[in-house]
Amino acid sequence: MDPNISSRIRVHRHSERGHYDFNTIYSIMDEALYCHIAVIRDGVPVVLPTLHVRIEDQVYFHGAVAAGIFKDLKEEAHATLSVTLLDGLVLARSAYNHSLNYRSVVVMGTPYEVTDVRHKTSVLKAMVEHVMPGRWNDCRRPTDVEIKTTRVFGIPLTEASAKIRSGPPLDDVSDLSLPFWAGVVNMKQLAVECVQDPQQSPDIKVPPYLPAK
Amino acid sequence: MDPNISSRIRVHRHSERGHYDFNTIYSIMDEALYCHIAVIRDGVPVVLPTLHVRIEDQVYFHGAVAAGIFKDLKEEAHATLSVTLLDGLVLARSAYNHSLNYRSVVVMGTPYEVTDVRHKTSVLKAMVEHVMPGRWNDCRRPTDVEIKTTRVFGIPLTEASAKIRSGPPLDDVSDLSLPFWAGVVNMKQLAVECVQDPQQSPDIKVPPYLPAK
Questions:
Q1: Which long-range contacts (C-beta less than 8 Å, at least 24 apart) are formed by A25-29?
Q2: How far apart are CA B111 and CA B13, in angstroms?
Q3: pLDDT digits over A169-203, tens only?
Q4: Does residue A211 sit within a domain?
Q5: What is the ipTM metric for this complex?
Q6: Does A133 contact chain B (CB < 8 Å)?
Q7: Mean pLDDT per segment of 10 residues, for chain B of length 213 residues?
Q8: Does B117 fall in a domain?
Q9: Within a domain: residue B199?
Q10: Which residue in B54, B59, B79, B138 has the most C-beta neighbors within 10 A?
């Protein structure tokens, strides 16, 4: 299956930054812990952050039955989902060429609801594992009621593109000799501390999948 | 000026996580380096990441005259802008109560174009300073042509809300004695390395505003 590089998903501005291969799109989606989903509500575009997970060629998101955004997904509603990873601050010699290094993905499609309990459970498992690999086997599994009060939606990754900016600033040749330091401040989303729930005994075994800090 | 807490901007789901005061909304917008903007294009919602900056009670974003998203902002178009800061991975005893700690802001409004050159320049200055405080006085300022080929839009922060989840997992009382480690892995977007442009002499003075790493 090839992605359908429609005009609306194609990267037009800085087209050299556009990528359409699955490996690139999937790796960005898998590294990002949350996405932004846009839908139309009462004629205006709304956008909300939410957790997502990719399984094969589908991206899934979920929420409580009562959540507002799901009221907009009753019928054949369009949605666009975007994930963005910030990789660096690009300090050019010119103010004009300042930029960010980033990897982003945009997916357009019509979300479908996942109602099959086995399918739904496998998505919820993948979501927990996306937040913390190894965790599904070290927590209480969802009950039937919990599964019922959660709605899960999927969007096929048939209309998706990635856009990546990397590397040093791109200054005009005439600016290269200017006396301003130029380069990139690389950025990373890092685990900085593990804080145990104060309601729990500190004697409990710290699981091996927790970050070292 | 009080924010207009309309129904569409109010936090309905987990309403206790909603915040409407300027200090909270502004501090989240100022810490975030980029936002996601949703507009309607050809009847479908599209969402794109872009740099933003807040000045007083306005949020601004910019882009090249040729950029696609600006074609959708010709008239009285609605837009929604969202910024999200990921603060932690919430590991509950139950799969169901796994979550993320985050601070997010949603702004709804009708973007207006900033065409006055002085106003536009002050926004571009604020954007550079948002990426790296201290940088505007240590780079080449934009030329008239560069300012002309950049479009700047603003949205008033009159319809904005913040949503914040913080603190430990919220497990059911009946789950509290389960033998699974519970807590939060705190996350932070950090500068990890400064990489000088290889086209520049390493003898150039490293500016004091660069992160230590």
A1: A25/A105, A25/A157, A25/A160, A25/A161, A25/A162, A26/A54, A26/A157, A28/A83, A28/A85, A28/A103, A28/A104, A28/A105, A28/A162, A29/A54, A29/A59, A29/A83, A29/A105
A2: 27
A3: 999 999 999 999 999 999 999 999 999 999 999 99
A4: no
A5: 0.94
A6: no
A7: 72 90 97 95 90 97 73 79 97 97 96 95 97 97 94 95 97 97 98 97 94 82
A8: yes
A9: no
A10: B59
DSSP summary character for residue A136: G
User: Rounded to whole angstroms, how far apart are CA atoms B17 and B166?
Assistant: 9
Cβ burial of A80 (10 Å; 0-12, 13-18, 19+) is buried
Counting the structural domains of chain B, the total is 1
Is the residue at B45 inside a domain? Answer: yes
Please identify among residues 80-99 of chain A the ones whose CB lies closer than 8 Å to any CB of chain B: 80-82, 84, 86, 89, 91-96, 98
Residue A147: count other Cβ atoms within 10 Å of its Cβ. 16
Q: Which of A:49-68 have CB within 8 Å of B? A: 49, 51, 63-64, 66-68
A88: domain range?
A: 15-186
CATH code for the domain of A68 = 2.30.110.10
Measure B140 CA to nearest chain A CA, in Å: 4
- Quote the tokens at residue B14: 């987990």
Question: Does the CB of B109 have a partner CB in chain A at under 8 Å?
Answer: no
- Give residue for tokens 């789901």: B13
Under 8 Å CB-to-CB from A23, ≥6 apart: which residues?
A: none
